[in-house]
Amino acid sequence: MSTPTIDPLTMRRAMGRFATGVAVITTEDESGPHGMTVNSLTSVSLEPPLLLVCFNHGARSAAAVEHAGRFVVNILARRQKEIALRFAQRGADHFADLEPSYGSHSVPVVPGSLAHLDCEVSRTVEAGDHTIVLGAVTAVCSNDGQPLGFYAGHFSDVQPHGEEIEPWFC
């Protein structure tokens, strides 16, 4: 079966129609703290709790996550657009003028985020131009607030509407 040739920009635009949240992945190794803004993040399993995050090949933070064997997913709040932009700059010292915060986490966390999920690297998979990292979730902290969204290449608000649905899990 042959794979059709799809223009990368066409693919990016089409997938940009899928609204996502925004997160910063943080870790720390002997060279110091690392972080990267992502929106390729999803829950994989509730039992056991697993998630996945996708990193571009060559991303310093991806190498640091694999080397450290642990990371934190920081799900950003609506007011944290500047944090998302800071950690999205390639090659920058993302923690310059920021004092890393740890709390009960083993790696730095982004204060004021909606949630922090501590993860241990369970497995990595090379796929196209990305590395998929599966993380076993070891601890979770959640806060109230509104999430920072991303849609069609722009930050966006996520507005609840309609009736509240019944939770399907506890």
Topology record:
Blueprint: H1 8-15, E1 20-21, E2 23-29, E3 32-38, E4 41-46, E5 49-56, H2 60-68, E6 70-75, H3 81-88, E7 115-127, E8 130-142, E9 148-151, E10 154-157
Antiparallel strand pairs: 1-9, 2-3, 2-6, 4-5, 5-8, 6-7, 7-8, 9-10
Order of secondary-structure elements? HEEEEEHEHEEEE
The tally of beta strands, per DSSP, is 10
Distance between the termini: 43 Å
Query: What shape does the CA trace take?
Result: globular
Alpha-carbon Rg, integer: 16 Å
Helix residue percentage: 10-25%
For the sheet with most strands, the description reads: 7 strands, antiparallel
Strand order of the largest sheet: 3-2-6-7-8-5-4
Which strand-content bin applies to the residues? 35-45%
Number of H/I helices = 3
Question: How does the helix and strand content classify structurally?
Answer: mainly beta
Question: Uncertain regions: pLDDT < 50 for 5+ in a row?
Answer: none
Mean pLDDT: 87
